[in-house]
Design goal:
The complex is a heterodimer of chains A (259) and B (635). Chain A is α/β, with parallel strands linked by helices and 259 residues long. Chain A contains 11 helices and 10 strands. Chain A folds into 2 domains: 190 residues, P-loop containing nucleotide triphosphate hydrolases (Rossmann fold); 61 residues, no CATH class. In chain A, 39% of the residues lie in helices and 24% in strands. In chain B, helix 10 runs antiparallel to helix 11. The chains are: A alpha/beta (259), B mainly alpha (635). Chain B: This is ABC transporter permease.
Chain lengths: 259, 635
């Protein structure tokens, strides 16, 4: 329901062999919003995602998704709880076609058990057909329908990123975490991505995005969380964050103050 | 007491040779990230080449020893240049591993052709009478062994630690890209590593040859032992390799001498498994472990697998089924029917392996071990205890599943190279059990008097009846596996192979899928093993040993992994062609090795994959020529 908290992080800490990557990070993401996490390089944005989705455990602190504590759950269980993420380097599955990639996204929603699939019972057939229809609809939305039988890794980077997003959407996540979805995209591709993300939000999915591309972020985000050196230094709507002196200092350095 | 010392000395001597082989592994692994599984073959090459130089060309010892080492270095270098170098850009590490398997088989086959299958006894360097020191007898050859090992290791250490060349070599090991940017000729380093590794192995064989018997396939034993030493010492650690070799030799000889050689082998292999699982950095905790990628294997990305879909697949399947059904009528119970029955049996086993390797991307180098577990269980129950063959087969499958479950859980945290090597250790362990537990399994001579498979009173005694039994089972399996492959289960497997982390992020419970596939493939192998035993009325360790494991991999890769038709093609070719070329039987191993190497280099998608891709390219070219701007059909 609107107004509830999709994702909440409390006091997360993580260090890698002496390097403190994330220090006392707390934030909350409103359901139905598009929240962006930004910050200079090395701020700890991807580490944050990895902690929340339990790619590795935090040294301290916890995170919860729609009120369910995520601590200790392996990544596949986190996904089953409704939190799906994408990765910084486009990770389309090599060796599989575009359509097959999207179909994999529906894994969590496949009701048929393995033995039923082995016998290709009617229920299995019907389910396969339904999933296929959904996948093809999504491919239409991003304009990849005519490349459905091509090898997924033969797509240009921009298309692979779109593919990753709709693959994640097939899982019908409640919360979608996108790690630098615009990295490596040109202006045209970025605009397409922005359109897709807004459409996803309109469909009721909560989005959290880690991004470097400022114009994209300022254009579509409802809330922004700014990280620097592993700490949250500002939160708020784009307009407020843009003029926040601490944020400006983090990006441009101390000289900006005297300029 | 004296006996203990003599056994210990024997251990140190054997250990020295293991150390030499292990150092060779270290050299190649440092520069390439994959151990050269064919390393042991150079031991045999060295010993037998020296023998030939001395006996047939009448070279004096002083010339024959370096001469044989030089020949080995040449072969090693040629291998690197002709095979390894072109492969490195094209194959992921898993493919390189399989390529190495091919090289091992190739060298074995070449040795068989050149020197035949008999064991050779090589004259000792300085006479046969042992030296006697403090009432302890030491073969004089022993001093040569220790001396050669010490000299080689010292020389190598000097080169690596004290020369610029050595520094460059170590730079390659750390970071080949950065090294080449600094002007280090990385490819020349790899060449040196291979050639030097080969020479080291050869020297080991030359000095050890006189006090043991060497034959064409002894290379396998040295590869295993040298590899175990290499792993025990921490992969990539130079001194660890030496220490590991000596330690291993001691442990082996002492346990073999005082307990039994079966126990010795079991202990050694259990030790290897333990190290791979819990201390991949070696017993001494060396720093030889490379950073693990989150993908299954590093290197070139997996190429897309061509598969048939839809109507084309169905037509082909029905056609195939039709041919299989009527074929025996034309063959009328001749030997060919029997060969085809064997084809069917191995097809069942390789189907399981395909599910594991082709679909899920887990390289398994010891798969015939499950054939052995299933086959021997069924055979022993049916022969010794008179259990009905069907029940006996069931028991064999059940035991195989239990073993597979243990193995899968124990290796759960391993990925890629480590998992592959753990499966090799498993296969070797099963080999030594089937050979060693003579009372139970009949030992090396095998188990005789196994009855025919029977169902409710009807005995499948003739070749034709076995043919139908086997192919009936195979057909049912193909249908089931085809269904699994094209549904969510199959996609989950392939996603796991492609990218485990991304797969988990979508909710795929990767560990569970890996275990389930492992179990299914083990069950199929066990079934194949049982049918094998019931068909031949005989079962020996060789039939279901590591050679068979490697052969199954060859069949799979030749036909095309990740498909269902591929295994059929591969198995058919490698069971029927040798039967047709019976007089050239000596060349069989050589041909198999050559086939595997060539396939990995030039047609990694196998025959089926290659033909399909070619047809798809042809089809898309035709479609693009027509006025309709249609998509390329997927066949």
């Amino acid at each position: 329901m609107p107004g509830s908290i999709a994702l909440e992080a409390r006091g997360l800490y993580k260090s890698f062999g002496g390097v403190l990557a994330i220090a006392d990070v707390s934030f909350s993401v409103r359901e139905g919003s598009l929240t962006a996490a930004i910050g200079p390089n090395g701020a700890g944005k991807t580490t944050l995602f990895n902690l929340v989705t339990n790619l590795y455990p935090p040294d301290a602190g916890s995170a919860s998704c729609f009120g369910i504590d995520l601590t200790g759950h392996p990544p596949d269980t986190v996904a089953a709880l409704g939190l799906v993420r994408t990765f910084q380097t486009a990770r389309a599955f090599p060796g599989m076609t575009v359509l097959e990639n999207v179909l994999v996204g529906a894994h969590l929603r496949v009701r048929a058990r393995a033995w039923q699939q082995a016998l290709w019972l009617r229920a299995v057939r019907d389910e396969e057909r339904a999933i296929r229809r959904q996948a093809e609809a999504l491919l239409e939305v991003v304009g990849l329908a005519d490349r459905r039988d091509d090898s997924a890794i033969s797509l240009p980077l921009g298309a692979q990123k779109l593919l990753e997003v709709i693959r994640a959407l097939m899982a019908r996540p409640r919360l979608l975490l996108l790690d630098e979805p615009a990295a490596g995209l040109n202006d045209v591709e970025t605009a397409e991505l922005a359109r897709l993300l807004l459409a996803v939000r309109a469909a009721g999915v909560t989005l959290m995005v880690v991004e470097h591309n400022m114009s994209l972020v300022m254009g579509i985000a409802d809330d922004i969380i700014v990280l620097d050196l592993g700490r949250v230094i500002a939160t708020g709507p784009p307009a407020a964050v843009q003029v926040n002196p601490r944020v400006i200092e983090a990006y441009l350095g101390r000289e900006a103050e005297t300029a | 007491m004296r006996e203990a010392v003599e056994i210990a000395i024997g251990g140190v001597l054997a250990g020295s040779v293991f150390a030499l082989v292990a150092v060779g592994f270290t050299l190649v692994y440092s520069v390439m990230g994959v151990p050269n599984l064919a390393q042991g073959a150079f031991v045999v090459l060295g010993a037998l080449t020296m023998y030939s130089l001395e006996t047939h060309l009448r070279w004096p010892l002083l010339a024959a020893v370096p001469g044989a080492a030089a020949v080995a270095a040449l072969v090693g270098g040629a291998t690197e240049r002709l095979v390894i170098r072109p492969a490195r850009d094209r194959l992921p590490t898993s493919g390189m591993l399989i390529l190495m398997v091919g090289l091992l088989t190739l060298f074995e086959g070449a040795s068989l052709v050149i020197w035949g299958s008999q064991p050779y006894s090589i004259p000792a360097f300085s006479g046969e009478r042992p030296a006697v020191i403090a009432d302890i007898r030491i073969p004089t050859q022993g001093f040569w062994i220790l001396g050669a090992t010490a000299a080689s290791v010292a020389l190598l250490w000097y080169i690596l630690a004290r020369t610029v060349f050595g520094k460059a070599l170590r730079a390659c090991a750390e970071n080949p890209v950065a090294a080449s940017l600094m002007g280090v000729p990385v490819s020349r380093m790899t060449l040196f590593a291979f050639a030097a590794g080969a020479a080291l192995g050869a020297i080991g064989g030359e000095v050890l040859g006189p006090i043991t018997s060497i034959e064409f396939d002894t290379g396998r034993f040295f590869t295993n032992s040298g590899f175990i030493a290499f792993a025990l010492g921490g992969m990539g650690s130079f001194f660890g390799a030496v220490a590991g070799g000596l330690g291993l030799g001691l442990v082996q000889q002492l346990t073999a001498g005082y307990i039994s050689s079966l126990f010795s082998n079991t202990l050694t292999l259990a030790l290897l498994l333990a190290v791979l699982i819990w201390r991949p950095g070696g017993l001494l905790g060396g720093s030889g472990v490379r950073r693990e990628d989150v993908r299954e294997f590093t290197g070139a990305p997996a190429r897309p697998v061509s598969r048939l879909r839809g109507p084309a697949a169905w037509s082909l399947a029905i056609l195939g089924a039709g041919i299989v059904a009527v074929l025996p009528a034309f063959l009328g119970g001749t030997g060919l029917t029997g060969s085809l029955a064997i084809t069917g049996i191995l097809f069942i086993g390789v189907l399981g392996l395909d599910l594991l390797m082709g679909y899920t991307g887990q390289v398994s180098l010891g798969h015939a071990g499950f054939m052995a577990v299933g086959g021997y269980t069924a055979a022993i129950l049916a022969t010794r205890l008179g259990v009905a063959p069907l029940a006996a087969t069931g028991a064999g499958i059940a035991l195989s599943l239990a073993v597979a479950l243990v193995l899968a859980l124990v290796t759960a945290r391993l990925r890629g190279l480590y998992l592959a090597l753990a499966t090799l250790a498993f296969g070797l362990l099963v080999d030594s059990v089937t050979v060693g537990l003579t009372g139970l399994t009949g030992g090396p001579s095998g188990l005789v008097g196994i009855p025919s498979f029977s169902l409710g009173g009807y005995a499948f005694a003739s070749a034709t009846s076995t043919y139908y039994l086997v192919w009936g089972v195979a057909a049912a399996l193909v249908i089931v596996l085809a269904n699994l492959a094209r549904s969510g289960y199959g996609r989950a497997l392939r996603a796991t192979r492609a990218d485990q982390t991304a797969a988990r992020a979508l909710g795929i419970q990767v560990p569970r899928y890996k275990v389930s596939v492992f179990l299914i493939s083990a069950a199929l192998a066990a079934l194949a093993g049982s049918l094998y035993a019931f068909h031949f009325h005989f079962l020996s360790p060789e039939m279901v040993g590591t050679s068979r494991s490697l052969e199954m991999i060859t069949m799979l890769v030749l036909g095309g992994e990740g498909t269902l038709a591929g295994p059929l093609i591969g198995v058919a070719l490698l069971t029927l062609l040798p039967a047709a070329f019976q007089p050239l039987a000596t060349y069989k191993t050589l041909a198999e090795g050559l086939v595997l190497v060539l396939i990995m280099l030039y047609l990694p998608a196998g025959i089926f994959g290659g033909v399909l891709s070619a047809l798809q390219r042809l089809a898309s070219r035709i479609t693009h020529l027509t006025p309709h701007a249609g998509t390329a059909s997927s066949g």
